[in-house]
Amino acid sequence: MTDHKDKMLVLENFLPYRLSYLTNIISHQLARLYTTQFDITPHEWKILAILNRYPNISAAHAGEKTAMDKVAVSRAVKGLSEKNLLHKIFSPEDKRRSMLNLTGEGTKLFHKIAPLVTDYENALLAILTKQEQGQLSQILDKLTRHVTAVKP
Amino acid sequence: MTDHKDKMLVLENFLPYRLSYLTNIISHQLARLYTTQFDITPHEWKILAILNRYPNISAAHAGEKTAMDKVAVSRAVKGLSEKNLLHKIFSPEDKRRSMLNLTGEGTKLFHKIAPLVTDYENALLAILTKQEQGQLSQILDKLTRHVTAVKP
DNA sequence: TATTTATAGTTACAAATGAAACTTATTTCA
DNA sequence: TGAAATAAGTTTCATTTGTAACTATAAATA
Lengths: 152, 152
Prior knowledge:
The structure is a homodimer of 152-residue chains.
Chain A: H1 15-35, H2 42-53, H3 59-66, H4 70-82, E1 86-90, E2 98-102, H5 104-126, H6 130-148
Antiparallel strand pairs in A: 1-2
Chain A binds a DNA duplex (30 and 30 nucleotides) through helix 4.
């Protein structure tokens, strides 16, 4: 007759906890793939990847695409630039807006790292059936849409 | 005839990225539920929750249960202790091992915060069908087991 | 038993992160 | 126009976090 409707909070079953537990491990393992071999931070890697995909975008735009805040982007850009992996100019039309592009070296580094991380992703996906892969994708979309919907 | 088998890495479709994007948002929203109203950090909240569930465990044990490293646990314990939310003694048998318990105040605070975070979880789950909830749970288990399996 | 190895927890220092203030450039609109 | 508001990006400072070194105790072993 104790704990009648106490709906005890059990960390191990708590969805946000389970998600963050898994995600933290994945992020660490993924980072280790390139931080050990190459002198590049996770933030820098994100910018490298997004600029390979979308050349010539601004820092703000890169931030949107990667969900990084502008300070993090600024620092990553600076780091990449100092390593000659990225070239930054400001737009002649709007001298506030940056135009970011990978250098040849930056592109080369991207193509060294990309297979490592896609291999890692494939190993993850291989754990799941095709069906589960689809389910996960759909569920992530649903949840992401929900949590990003602006709250009053 | 270009990019024949280039399996381009597209951040937006990349599972680890999608996971971390979602998880970061959830973690932030969740933290906001208690950090604004109560003077408690996310680490402290985890320890509070695990001690409510498993009273009298050691710091090391609490760390295992929460996937926090021992430094983070030590700091959270210190913080909670300074706020009189937690009581720490060392075991008489093994004077290295701590025995942690919530104080009455700590327990009271837990019961104030718990419904806020479970409500948040329920709102998340409500987005999914019962079926999807089961699928997600199973998928998280599979992936977590995989990534935590020791690698040579 | 004396020495070493291992364990629990803390402390200290360095690196990463986040929030706010700041600079420069552009837009708005009174 | 020109003052005020907005926007992009950077810098600064405080906080958080992570790694390594350290202390104290207990266990292993020679």
